[in-house]
Amino acid sequence: MVITRFAPSPTGYLHIGGLRTALYCYLWARKCGGKFLLRIEDTDLARNSKEAADAIVEAFKWVGLAHDGEIVYQSNRFELYKTYVQQLLDEGKAYKCYMSKEELDTLREEQSARKERPRYDGRYRDFTGTPPHGVEPVIRIKAPLEGMIVLHDGIKGEVHFNVADMLDDFIIARSDGTPTYNFVVTIDDALMGVTDVIRGDDHLSNTPKQIVIYNAFDFAIPKFFHVPMILNPDGKKLSKRDGATDVMDYEKEGFLPETLLNFLVRLGWSHGDQEIFSMEEMLEWFDPNSINKSASAYNQEKLLWLNAHYIKEISIERLVELLKPFGVDISLHGNKERLVEMLRERAKTIKEFAVMVQQIIEAPNSYDEVAVQKCITSETKALLSAYQEALHVSTPTQGAEVFTKAFLESKGAKLKDLAPALRIAMVGTAVSPAIFDVLEVIGFNDVQERIQKLLSTLKE
Ligand code: GLU
């Protein structure tokens, strides 16, 4: 059975790069009928917090990625890790190292004077003497001293790590007894039965160390997939400056979870030239073996394009709910279907959509001065006033289009003579969705009131 895991370190919020990794892990596990586990790597008590761990869980809920089983918190497992450190000590595969900080510094200086790579020299590897007094030892693992560690990565292909260039007997437990990062990752992946590790390629250099630990315990080595980074359009690492990087900011900016998942699945993976993927299609076609080898660039235009697509697709009921957090409640609006249909074509985000809806459902408080200057003349004012009068005399029973066209004909005027001023009266600017739709949604009573309001403002 395929078992994947997402293993974030909770230092702040869930980064979209992290969400992409989680999505890949999720898709692969679900596609294979396996399991997708969530492990919070919170052993760095100074940098990790419960709030940050909760923020990750909240982001998962928002996008709808369900993990299997209980969340594993590494901070609850220190005792367990200790037993595994002890096992290696007992088996002679790890040893206590009593080197002081001063000794280590001296060694580093000597090595750098000889232009050598700083590397622990193994001086306690076979130590049998009496330990120096008062020094709490660290525990180091006996790593291979030479040769190659070969990784068969599902994305990078075969990667060779030359032991002499990058390994030494690295520390698996600090002098205060706490286990180190690579040790706990490996123990947990093995104990949780993880078969496929999909993670960012910033972890590639940790992998040979983890392989040393797998081998020390005779644990089966999982398949690894090291996913290239997401870059900004300038080819640099994506950062806050490039826009939102916190998953929950996307919700605040009015993006839909399906937009974000669709966007992320394509950032580094493709299926022909298809851009729009339902969850079912992702599950059908995703395969970590076909993740791109090169880094992918974040593209805000595409994100907006996808969001506009999904805003057009989803149900009216859902849109009505999505508007509420943006302070717009149209659940009781008599013409909400038409209102939504008229505007959803134009909105790229729910936030933008909310502003448009607000513009229609509330009479404008001010008018775009440039538009007023340009479009309102004594003729248009007279025409607008006559239109309002006609509405006042008898509320039309026919639709806005039929009524307005008949009115214009009776005046020997054209729609272009009236429409800009009418738009200003309705929404405060000369730009709006199709004017007849706007009139219908607003309703003739309010149309009249809005015209009156504009005319009286112009008088002042
Ligand atoms: N905790 C690590 C991180 O947040 C990931 C570890 C892993 O996936 O192996 O970057």
Which key terms come to mind for this protein?
single chain; mainly alpha; Rossmann fold; Arc Repressor Mutant, subunit A; 3 domains; 20 helices; 12 strands; 11% strand; binds glutamic acid
In short:
The chain is mainly alpha-helical and 460 residues long. The protein is 48% helix and 11% strand.
Notes on the protein architecture:
With 460 residues, this protein is mainly α. The protein has helices at residues 16-31, 50-63, 78-90, 101-113, 163-166, 181-191, 207-217, 247-252, 257-266, 279-285, 300-313, 316-323, 336-344, 350-361, 369-375, 378-393, 400-411, 415-427, 435-442, 444-459, and strands spanning 3-6, 35-40, 72-73, 94-97, 138-141, 148-153, 157-162, 171-173, 196-200, 223-227, 230-231, 296-297. The mean pLDDT is 94. Glutamic acid (GLU) binds at residues 7-9, 41, 185, 199, 203.
List the helices and strands and how they pair.
Blueprint: E1 3-6, H1 16-31, E2 35-40, H2 50-63, E3 72-73, H3 78-90, E4 94-97, H4 101-113, E5 138-141, E6 148-153, E7 157-162, H5 163-166, E8 171-173, H6 181-191, E9 196-200, H7 207-217, E10 223-227, E11 230-231, H8 247-252, H9 257-266, H10 279-285, E12 296-297, H11 300-313, H12 316-323, H13 336-344, H14 350-361, H15 369-375, H16 378-393, H17 400-411, H18 415-427, H19 435-442, H20 444-459
Parallel strand pairs: 1-2, 2-3, 9-10, 11-12
Antiparallel strand pairs: 4-5, 5-8, 6-7
Helix pairs in contact: 6-7, 9-11, 13-14, 13-19, 16-18, 16-20, 18-19, 18-20
The protein binds glutamic acid.
